[in-house]
Design a protein that fits this description.
heterotrimer; A mainly beta (178); B alpha+beta (501); C alpha/beta (519); A: 178 residues; mainly beta; OB fold (Dihydrolipoamide Acetyltransferase, E2P); 9-stranded antiparallel sheet; B: 501 residues; alpha+beta; D-amino Acid Aminotransferase, Chain A, domain 1; 8-stranded antiparallel sheet; 5-stranded parallel sheet; 23 strands
């Protein structure tokens, strides 16, 4: 991890995909970059006002960061997107350690934040949902409020349907945390 | 009849498309500005703008017949082009235009009405000996009748809403015991969706091909066809890729289907552009499905292989001119494929991807045509459909067209939204698509993955994410924060600040 | 070390004991909990080689109370010292969970107090890295007294130097009050907890089963209570976040905030987007963070309390390298209404900015206060008043941009002109009125609507008329309640020059001990 005036320890990182793939990246800012132990011979052409692309094996790859939040990334390359979390050897070890310790899957109840009417439900039972993804639209005060999931996991139960009137703190959707 | 000015009662790429032809023909173009996209590209292309920003009705600006008619009269506009969607197949709108002596660039209100009603259209087809799927003659009166006819034509059968479209009010039934139940469901769904409970039944063709013929007629009784378009690459009845000609039609079948298409059109004395849609089964038996009484989204593929401007033809015919070509003069040259570049997240189940097009870079070549309604800075909103552009590629033959397409798609870059480009790439790499062996079940059966990812894509993406992460840390750490500057405070302030402590 | 003599022997012996106290076994043990050691944390936080430890060899008070076992160790479970972060003097203490569980005894408390005193004397920020089992029971009242002396210093330093608490392990019982007094609380997800009474006591007293995580985990505190201002997934990122936050803050209440040579990109393509962000349909939500990101220096927005009371967005950002504090109503969540939580969140943020000379930008799109029995009974009156008070009391430069709705009492609260706002701008999409069009016409034209054959249509027409004639920025502009109606794409430029004009702002406040904010 970077620290100490940015001098040292910027060598090794892991980009962990949500599908469980792990890419070891060595020296990402350096002259010689290695990915999964192999030298990556490429060139990055960055232009914040235009396109950013990578030239690799004489091919151009249009690349764009769609979302980032702390160490979580969604990157689109030639129109296809991937999710990664970037870990250092220390945080990677921590992630592994903690995942062994905490395997309890629990239910998160999504409750109505205010009384209103359900306009649309965007998820289905047994569907996968990511944190921050919309669950349903609640109309209240003549405004459409998109209610998003605060956890990632599987939709276990939906207790509402379109046009239902709901009260504050009614349980709308039950999500089994991933 | 003279056309001095045209209102294009539409938006997006089709508005731009019509404006271009109008300009070429020396006709003034008018468009409607809405509050939903006040900075849209098509507005910058037209000669004149009618401002509908204050429109408060429930229905869309582009569906408000009386408001549009009034605007045309107020501005003394001689003709209207409805584009596709919105009012493009409204017999009421066409009739109102006639009433007000405004030239409607399209077929007669009567033709629109009769082809729009599936039961009437089928009846016409039957009368004119156009092959039809077995089924009820007109609407079903009862569940019993449905069962009786279904038993006659054999299973599976499909129940369809007479006024339906887009998959709503449709039910596929595999066996007798479900017919009555499904009839009730389809009928109530149709009632809800289209305010018309009428339902009919016909033989269901499993995995047919969707082949359509572009036809053209004038007001003097001439009707020709401009060849077929293959539109079998569909998702939930939405066409995604279209090509012309079709890889499976031979000259004999083309002639036969073309003649059938012309027959249907003749039955309603059709003029202007129209499309006759057929289902083609695996035994190369075709049957009439419906006729679209408007210009289609996919009309450019026909233009690419015939070298014609169909919008220009529509305008000329509306003016009363005769068709410029006879059937025998229609020449088909090479192969054309159209890709709909939609703002959709293919990996997220084709969900709409809203946002702003931050940057766009298009392929350029003499065998490529791009019809687009957006520029950099355009917003993709939830008010309208998700189509961003159409890429049409021409080649001397199908193989060449596919090859050029792959190259063109590689150079089609959009920043800011997700698009269906990875889907197009995946289709082009599919073995059976390359062989031309595909039908409407292509997406669900043939494609296990709906997007193409290159061999090194994920690795490079992983690297780039790491690169950005480390760079940001580096930036924050190496960016000299000037804490001392915070201590340079004007004495005026510092004195007062100290005093007030 | 090549030194001789008796004095040096002792010196070297101590070093050895010290090393033993931090042996690999202990480090591994801490790592197996998913945590770093106190020393590793300090190492990551400070610029390389700048940290100077004080009182490393201090030992716990000698007298054994004879009650319970006590493992004695040098340092008494806390590291204190000073060093440089981004080359600025900063003080810190880090509790060491591997020494007596990081429990707080008399010496431990004295050390923390000592570093608190030093940071206040030097006018430099102080950071507490907290990982402690709580009061050291064996030392009895002495440890409680220790807590009290820490709290006292926290309060004395409040508003004078920035105080940051980083929870990296348990913080239980009295220990939670020091962080809650400090300006910002960071928590590391899954390995940090804060509660007054732990799960065991809850079980004993109420017979309720609750996990550590559900009672006082980072998730609970960042989403539900708002006590954790920032939550990160691992410790390195947490500490990096601390550094990032510090880069926006001055060292004390006399300094101005620091400065970063910023990009001076004026109008680029993306800023044009500002014209399209606010939907024409007044009931359609949008993400106000898009507005913030387009106005401020690229990538400079650092959000505080992101997950709590999301109907208001607060955070720091830079305009041409200069720190500003931003408060923005979030139309995406609860329509951007003000409720109890968002009022408290906003009020505390305004207070912080005002304490440390950070100018405040308010982006307003607020339909009003959230109605309801629940809100009223829980005191929205008092809590809403906090935000109002905080704004009116703030003497730093204050600018408001009204993006869309600005209705009723909420208009007054959100830094309105007459509440002392220095500049109030409005976008052409702004609607400023006592209430929204639909509500207003329902009252004003009650009889006409009742008598109408088509009340829906009439209501719509009247609402449109109201919108055109009353609920727009031009009426307010003509009456001087708005300084200027501006082109959204031009917002950044306007703000830069406005803040520049306000740079030397000073307000003479009446002399008083302190105001009486409705707490």
């Amino acid at each position: 991890m970077a620290n100490h005036n940015g001098k040292t320890e910027k060598e090794k990182f892991y980009a962990c995909s949500t599908k469980g793939k792990k890419f070891e990246v060595v020296n990402p800012l350096g002259e010689i970059v290695k990915v999964k132990g192999k030298k990556l011979d490429m060139q990055i052409v960055e232009d914040p006002d235009s396109f950013t692309y990578i030239i690799y094996k004489k091919k151009k790859y249009h690349i764009e960061i769609l979302e980032k939040s702390q160490n979580k990334y969604t990157v689109m390359i030639n129109g296809v997107w991937y999710n990664f979390s970037i870990e250092t050897p220390i945080s990677y070890k921590r992630m592994k350690t903690l995942s062994k310790v905490q395997v309890v899957s629990r239910i998160e109840n999504i409750m109505a934040p205010m009384p209103g009417k359900i306009l649309d439900i965007m998820v289905e039972e047994n569907g996968e949902i990511k944190e921050g993804e919309p669950l349903f639209i609640l109309e209240a005060m003549k405004m459409q409020n998109e209610i998003v999931s605060n956890v990632s996991g599987k939709v276990k139960k939906i207790n509402i349907k379109n046009n239902d009137s709901v009260m504050k703190d009614d349980v709308m959707i039950e999500i089994e945390k991933a | 009849m003279e056309i001095k000015s045209i209102l294009i009662a539409n938006r997006g790429e089709i508005a731009v498309r019509v404006i271009n032809t109008a300009r070429k023909m020396g006709i003034e173009s008018w468009v409607i500005k809405t509050s939903k996209e006040p900075n849209a590209f098509y507005l910058t292309q037209a000669d004149h703008i009618i401002d509908f920003s204050d429109h408060t009705e429930e229905i869309s600006e582009f569906l408000d017949i009386e408001a549009i008619i009034k605007a045309m009269k107020d501005n003394n506009i001689s003709a209207v082009h409805p584009g596709y969607g919105f009012l493009a197949e409204s017999p009421i709108f066409a009739e109102r235009c006639d009433d007000e002596k405004i030239i409607y660039i399209g077929p007669s209100a009567d033709a629109i009405y009769r082809m729009g009603n599936k039961t009437i259209a089928k009846e016409l087809a039957r009368k004119h000996k156009v092959p039809l799927l077995g089924g009820s003659k007109g609407n079903l009166s009862s569940p019993d009748e449905a069962v009786k006819i279904a038993n006659e034509i054999g299973y599976p059968v499909i129940l369809k809403a007479a006024s339906g479209g887009g998959g709503r009010g449709m039910r596929i039934v595999e066996e007798e015991k479900n017919v009555a139940k499904m009839f009730k469901m389809a009928s109530s769904e149709a009632e809800k969706a289209f305010n018309d409970p009428d339902v009919f039944v016909e033989k269901y063709v499993r995995n047919p091909r969707h082949i359509e013929f572009q036809i053209f007629g004038d007001k003097h009784g001439n009707i020709i066809h401009l060849g077929e378009r293959e539109c079998s690459v569909q998702r939930k009845h939405q066409k995604l890729i279209e090509e012309s000609p079709s890889a499976v039609l031979d000259e004999k079948l083309r002639k036969k289907m073309g003649a059938a298409a012309i027959n249907i059109a003749k039955s309603v004395d059709y003029f202007s552009a129209g499309t006759v849609e057929f289902l083609l089964d695996d035994k190369m038996e075709f049957s009439f499905m419906e006729m679209n009484t408007r210009i289609q989204v996919e009309h450019p593929v026909t233009e690419m292989i015939t070298g014609l401007d169909l919008i220009e033809w529509q305008i000329r015919i509306a003016r009363g001119e005769e068709l410029p070509l006879k059937q025998k003069d229609v020449k088909i040259n090479g192969w054309a494929i159209e890709y709909r570049i939609n703002a959709e997240d293919v990996q997220g189940g084709f969900s709409p991807s809203l946002g702003v097009i931050e940057k766009i870079s298009l392929p350029r070549s003499k065998n490529i045509r791009i019809d687009s309604g957006v520029v950099e800075g355009s917003s993709i909103t939830s008010y309208f459909d998700s189509m961003v552009a159409k890429l049409i590629v021409h080649g001397e033959n199908r193989e060449k067209a596919i090859l050029y397409s792959q190259n063109a798609l590689k150079k089609f870059w959009i920043k800011g939204i997700k698009t269906t480009i990875p889907f197009c790439n995946a289709v082009l790499l599919n073995k059976n698509f390359r062989k031309g062996k595909y039908d409407t079940s292509f997406l669900t059966k043939e494609m296990t993955k709906h997007y193409h990812e290159g061999q090194d894509d994920e690795m490079l993406a992983a690297f780039f994410a790491t690169y950005d992460f480390v760079k940001e840390i580096e930036n924050v750490e190496n960016k000299p924060v000037d804490f001392d500057k915070g201590k340079n405070i004007a004495p005026w302030v510092l004195k007062k600040r100290l005093k007030s402590l | 070390m090549d030194v001789k003599g008796r004095n040096f022997t002792k010196f070297l012996d101590r070093e050895k004991v010290f090393e033993k106290q931090n042996n690999q076994e202990i480090v591994d043990k801490q790592h197996s909990r998913g945590k770093l050691t106190a020393r590793e944390r300090i190492h990551i936080l400070f610029d390389e080689g700048t940290f100077e430890e004080i009182d490393a060899f201090v030992a716990p008070v000698g007298e054994d109370t004879g009650f319970g076992k006590m493992k004695r160790a040098y340092g008494d479970g806390v590291i204190i010292g000073h060093g440089r972060i981004s080359n600025r003097l900063t003080f810190a203490y880090a509790q060491d969970f591997n020494v007596m569980g990081g429990s707080l005894g008399e010496i431990h408390a004295t050390k923390i107090s000592k570093i608190q005193d030093m940071s206040l004397k030097m006018g430099a920020p102080i950071i507490g890295l907290i990982d402690s089992g709580g009061a050291r029971i064996q030392e009895g009242i002495a440890s409680l007294a220790g807590y009290a002396s820490i709290f006292y210093r926290n309060v004395q330093a409040s508003g004078v130097i920035p105080q940051i608490s980083v929870i990296m392990g348990p913080a239980a019982g009295g220990a939670v009050y020091s962080p809650s007094i400090t300006d910002f609380v960071f928590m590391t997800n899954k390995t940090s907890y804060m509660f007054v009474t732990g799960p065991n006591v809850v079980k004993e007293v109420l017979n309720e089963d609750v996990t550590l995580e559900d009672l006082g985990g980072a998730g609970v505190h960042s989403r539900k209570t708002g006590i954790a201002n920032l939550m990160y997934e691992d410790e390195e990122n947490t500490l990096f976040g601390v550094k990032k936050l510090l880069s926006y803050l001055p060292s004390n209440n006399l300094d101005n905030p620091p400065f970063i040579e910023g990009p001076t990109d004026d109008i680029d393509n993306s800023r044009l987007k500002l014209r399209d962000i606010v939907p024409d349909d007044a009931n359609k939500p949008y993400d106000v963070k898009d507005v913030i990101n387009l106005i401020c220096d690229k990538g400079s927005f650092f959000e505080i309390s992101e997950q709590f009371a999301q109907n208001i967005v607060v955070g720091f950002a830079r305009l041409e390298g200069k720190t500003i504090g931003i408060l923005a109503n979030q139309p995406k969540v609860l329509a951007g209404t003000l409720d109890i939580n968002s009022s408290m969140k906003g009020a505390r943020f305004v207070r912080f900015c005002d304490s440390f000379n950070i100018p405040i930008l308010t982006l307003e799109d607020v339909p009003g206060f959230l109605p309801g029995v629940d809100q009223e009974h829980n005191g929205i009156i008092r809590h809403g008043a906090k935000l109002l008070y905080a704004y009116a009391d703030a003497t730093v430069p204050r600018i408001t941009v009204i993006l869309r709705k600005s209705y009723g009492g909420a208009y007054c609260v959100m830094n309105s002109k007459n509440l002392g706002g220095d500049f109030n701008f409005a976008w052409p999409t702004a609607e400023i009125a006592v209430m929204g069009p639909e509500g207003a016409v329902a009252i004003l034209y009650k009889r006409e609507l009742a008598e109408s054959k088509d009340p829906m249509k009439l209501k719509k027409e009247l609402a449109l008329k109201y919108r055109n004639e009353i609920a727009n920025p031009y009426v307010a502009d003509e009456k001087g309640y708005i300084d200027e109606v501006i082109d959204p794409a031009n917002t950044r430029k306007k703000l830069i020059s406005a803040f520049e004009a306000l740079e030397n702002k000073h307000v003479n406040v009446p002399s008083r001990k302190h105001g009486n904010i409705p707490l």
